UniProtKB/TrEMBL annotation:
Highest taxon of source: Bacteria
Organism: Micromonospora pisi
Entry protein name: ABC-2 type transport system ATP-binding protein
Pfam families with a match to the protein in the record: ABC_tran
PROSITE patterns xrefs: ABC_TRANSPORTER_1, ABC_TRANSPORTER_2
Length: 300
């Protein structure tokens, strides 16, 4: 596994708040998502990896060097959560200005095609909608032809069309062999884009692995079907959670075979049954509930 970035026993404190507590992570080549509740420490981890903040203690290595060094920063692209684009510049001026800072930039016009910027090319940034601004921010992160791109909640608040356009652009970035490190609270987005996940809880790493590993590690399967009325006890015996979803019922079960067998044996007239691995959202929620010992954010 090629590692593109690494935190080694990194602690970051803001006054008495311990935002990251001796965190060690190796970010592999590809698309990795850093997940966790609000305030878990995701943006702090990204900022440190992007060279925007220094850790209080511990070691950071990105693309084989120090992310604060010019040599490494020239190979990074950054799309932070809150970005102040120069208000009075047009989209074209912004991208040409940024491109001029790099030795081997992507042509701004190529980014215009990829991110559907033609219609807003001569508009001032200050007049753009939220979705249009996001596209310009992503273009700004890519214009330097980076090897590693940081995307902090890239599609929060976007409509479906804008989100799909950004997803396609991010997939293209990954297909070109660039690595991407993103944060998101949207699990379908993470399942679509990321191959690896790092889950942070209370400033510490609680889970790490491929999306499939994290989903499998929780030891649960989903059995979903249309069933009439309450289910007999043998059907629910292996279920750790039962959720009605419209006309359907979801059983999160430790033994999907036994659950389906019980439906048949007890003559429950089910329709349109689906047996699947649990999704990332359920896997992370279940793992968090199984480990209530996750320390809340501590203060120094
Ligand atoms: N500049 C700062 N000064 C003081 N405290 C900070 C600062 N930045 C972050 N924190 C605190 O550090 C902790 C981690 O914050 P961080 O922004 O890294 O979390 P996050 O996981 O990115 O959250 P969110 O999902 O809400 O964006 C929080 O308790 C936050 O209040």
């Amino acid at each position: 596994m090629e590692v593109v970035a690494r935190l080694d026993h990194v602690t970051k404190t803001y006054g008495r708040i311990v935002a990251l507590d001796a965190v060690s992570i190796a970010i592999p080549q590809g698309v990795t998502a850093i997940l966790g509740a609000n305030g878990a420490g995701k943006s702090t981890a990204i900022d440190i990896l992007a060279g925007l903040r220094r850790p209080t203690s511990g070691r950071v290595e990105v693309l084989g060097g120090d992310p604060a060094s010019l040599a490494v920063r020239a190979r990074l692209g950054l799309s932070p959560q809150a970005t102040a684009l120069p208000w009075r510049l047009t989209v074209a001026e912004t991208l040409h200005l940024l491109a001029a800072h790099y030795t081997d930039p992507i042509a701004p016009t190529a980014l215009a095609d990829r991110l559907d910027l033609a219609g807003i090319w001569d508009r001032r940034n200050g007049t753009l909608s939220g979705g249009q601004r996001r596209r310009v921010v992503l273009a700004s992160a890519l214009v330097g032809n980076p090897d590693l791109v940081f995307l902090d909640e890239p599609t929060t608040g976007l409509d479906v069309e804008s989100r799909d356009l950004l997803w396609a652009a991010i997939e293209k970035v990954a297909a070109e062999g660039r690595s991407v490190l993103l944060t998101s609270h949207n699990m379908p987005e993470v399942e679509r884009l990321a191959s690896h996940v790092v889950v942070i809880a209370g400033g510490q790493v609680s889970q790490v692995g491929s999306v499939d590993e994290v989903c499998a590690n929780v030891g649960l399967h989903l059995v979903e079907a249309e069933v009439p009325g309450p289910l007999p006890e043998p059907v629910t015996a292996h279920a750790v959670r039962i959720e009605p979803v419209g006309a359907r019922t979801r059983l999160y079960t430790t033994d999907p075979d036994a659950t389906v067998r019980a439906l048949v044996r007890h003559d429950v007239p089910f329709r349109a049954i689906r047996v699947d691995r649990v999704g990332l959202e359920e896997a992370i929620r279940t793992a968090a509930e199984a480990k209530p010992s996750h320390e809340p954010l501590r203060t120094a």
